[in-house]
Amino acid sequence: MWRLSLRRIVIVGFSILALAYLFQLLSFASFSNSSNAQDARQNAAAKRQLGNPPQWFFDKTSSPLTAASDDQLRSLAGLSNKERFLGLLQPILIPRVSGTQGNLQVQQFLITTLQNLGYTIELDKFDDSPPAPHARRTFTNIIATLDPNAPRRLVLVCHYDSKFDSRGEFVGATDSAVPCAMLLDLATALRGRVDNRSTKQDITLQLLFMDGEEAFGEWSATDSLYGARHLANSWSRTRNRFAPDVASMNELSSMDVFVLLDLIGTTDTNFRNFFSSTGDLYNQLSKDEDRLAQLRLIKQWGRLDNYFDRGGFPVGMIDDDHRPFMEKGVKIVHLISYPFPSVWHKYEDNIANIHYDTVDDINKILRVFVCEYLSCRF
Ligand code: 1BN
Ligand code: ZN
After folding, report:
1. Is 223 a catalytic residue?
2. What is the pLDDT of residue 167?
3. Rg of the chain over all Cα atoms, to the nearest angstrom
4. pLDDT number for residue 4
5. C-alpha distances in angstroms, 115 versus 106, 110, 111, 121?
6. Angle between helices 356-374 and 279-294 (to 10 degrees)
7. Pocket lining: 349 vs ligand 1, CB cutoff 6 Å
């Protein structure tokens, strides 16, 4: 009698458990079905509202970061070459005020170097008038794209003009000859690893060399950011070439993120997170710094802290070439040293105050970040 009821209890118990499991499976399936169906309905509504953008436009919402392995970090760090970097910096390190012969000379150097690296070049040329007594002049933004047939772009940016000074001697090493040389160095070091679009996504590398960032007199809305204002306006008015039938999409829709480098190269280089919308990317840069430091692949010479401040919360914004793009909805990472280097807008912002080991550390961090974003070949 006792044995029988025990068997019954066991059978009934198992049956209850099996039923409960079955019920859970069924309810989960119907829940995920209904949430999938809900997602699909919402996506379809968003698509209709935007005029049916292509899939790559929706893929942009998640950053395609794949962590590099330790061996990959070693291999990327090993691509540094001091002579190569200085060879790329030296031709830029001359007075190059917009509309002058020096500016034209640097333009030609950038274009030739990038063409030799396999980039497709577009020039955004326009005339504008700085305040008197400065004459009306031509400004030229240089757009270099690795694979012009890829619809999405990881965009790295510097300004190649230098600030006007009455002596005609200011060379702006940190502002922004070094950042521009860093972009050329990155393109050289990663040649053959990011030949064309990423293997995982429809995404490529685009480098922007902006003209007319500097004010000729006092920094103001009309006397500054000549190139950035023109290019952001022009791209916001141009239908996206990868979605020509979608009225809501313009050339800016192809930018995953606009990463601006400025005021880099002295020992007092420090970055901060200015934008919560790109906090994940800033954190990745900061993680890359940590991993390179742990593997002793960067020097962090004489520093008590990291290059990438871990303060957590974003601090107020600094006006720069990103603003016209940001105001049109482009996501921004602003890699500008803050506080500004002590040589900022002084004649001492020259090669004597550039610290190669600092620049090289940041070159390595950027190389790793770009490879993680674009899934480099190794
Ligand atoms: C950066 C380098 N800037 C100029 N040269 C931008 C800037 C704008 C810096 C306003 C300080 C104030
Ligand atoms: Zn400046």
Report:
1. no
2. 97
3. 26
4. 47
5. 14, 8, 6, 7
6. 120
7. no
User: What pLDDT score was predicted for residue 25?
Assistant: 36
In this prediction the pTM is 0.87
The verdict on the CB of residue 317 being under 6 Å from ligand 1 is no
Task: For 213, list phi and psi in degrees, rounded to 5.
Answer: -70, -40
Cβ < 5 A residues, ion ligand 2: 163, 175
Closest CA to 356 of 264, 263, 265: 265
Query: Per the structure block, which two tokens stand in for 178?
Result: 């070094």
Closest ligand 1 atom, CA of 215? Answer: 4
Longest dimension (CA), the chain: 111
Query: Which of 261, 108, 103 is CA-nearest to residue 175?
Result: 261
Q: Which two tokens stand for residue 377?
A: 């070949």
Residue tagged active-site, from 147, 262, 288, 361: 262
37 Cβ contact list (under 8 Å, min separation 6): none
Q: Compute the distance between CA of residue 229 and CA of residue 226 in angstroms, rounded to an integer.
A: 6
CA distances from 85 to 111, 179, 322 (A): 17, 11, 25
Q: Catalytic residue among 147, 175, 185, 213, which?
A: 213
3-state secondary structure 111-138: HHHHHHCCCEEEEEEEEECCCCCCCCEE
Ligand 1 pocket mutation pick from 319, 321, 344, 346 by most atoms within 8 angstroms of CB: 319
CA separation for the pair 163, 60 (Å, rounded): 36
Q: Is 360 a catalytic residue?
A: no
Walking along the chain (378 residues) 10 residues at a time, the average pLDDT comes out as 49 50 40 53 72 84 84 98 98 98 98 97 98 98 95 97 98 98 98 70 92 98 98 97 93 97 97 94 97 97 93 81 98 96 98 98 98 90
Q: What distance lies between CA 91 and its chain's CA centroid?
A: 24
Ligand sitting nearest the alpha carbon of 316: 1
The Cα-based distances of 321 to 157, 181, 227, 259, 292 in angstroms read 9, 17, 8, 10, 29
DSSP state of 308: B
Cα–Cα distance for residue pair 140/306, rounded to 1 Å? 36
